[in-house]
Amino acid sequence: MLTPQTTDGRNMNDVRTRQPTTPFLSRVPRIPVSLFTARDIADNLPSLLSTWREDSESITVSAITGGITNLIFKATHPSAVPRNVLIRIFGAQGVFTHEQRAQENAVFEQLGRAGHAPPLLALFENGRVETYLPARPIDLPEMVSPTVLFGVAKAMARLHTFRPRRRV
């Protein structure tokens, strides 16, 4: 396990954690630790996901390329449910305030419950754990396919009807 630290490197034992006060995130597991590497993720996922505590040495973590500002990893535990999770380590530190990041996480959690995003599983100091959705990028011929265009338009229309609860 890592020594819990704040995002600016201070020991968490010396600093009180600023937890978001939003009621939407109150039931989401969290640890006051920043994660930076695949090893950090493997060491700390059992603290975030109770079903990953058994046989935790079986956890594998691999980087997913293509993120614009975030570092994205896929973690797998062969005998846990869920078997695969996505770990998003937020990039561009300092761009968002703590309150803005809490707001983003609260809206993401609501989107997940409404079926518009993967369910939010846990939070850590500089990111979150989400349900992993197996997918692949579409290629150019697929992008212009009427079937795909209709599906994207339908999904976007559904997403744009979503209204987050006011008090996030």
Which residues sit in consecutive blocks of at least 5 with pLDDT less than 50?
A: 1-21
CATH topology: Phosphorylase Kinase, domain 1
Structural category is alpha+beta
CATH C-level name: Alpha Beta
Gap between N and C termini: 32 Å
The main sheet comes to:
6 strands, mixed
Q: Quickly count the helices.
A: 4
Give the overall silhouette. Answer: globular
The arrangement of helices and strands along the chain is: EHEEEHEEHH
CATH homology superfamily name? Phosphorylase Kinase, domain 1
Radius of gyration from the alpha-carbon trace, in angstroms: 17 Å
Strand content: 15-25%
What is the CATH-assigned architecture? Answer: 2-Layer Sandwich
Count of strand segments: 6
What's the helical proportion of residues?
25-40%
Total tally of structural domains = 1
* Average pLDDT score: 83
Strand order of the largest sheet: 1-5-6-4-3-2
